[in-house]
User: What shape does this take?
Amino acid sequence: MKKARIADLKSRLSEHLRAVKRGQTIIILERDTPIARITPLESKGVSLQIRPRSARAVPLADIALPAPLKLKTDVVALLAQERGER
Assistant: This one.
């Protein structure tokens, strides 16, 4: 069983994932304390599948923004007052 610290995992993720793909298990360490385990999937036939975009999906640009809040207080003045106190 291989061990890897978080920084090492981040910098060499592809290499670690290739090892997992070959059947190796990796224990992830945070300051020498085990926090997670990366193991290969049991079934060799399992693969990730990306679902096609739903016909109901609406582009983000087409979504209307909510109406602005009607406040009796000037938020800019409140922000300036708060920052002046520091």
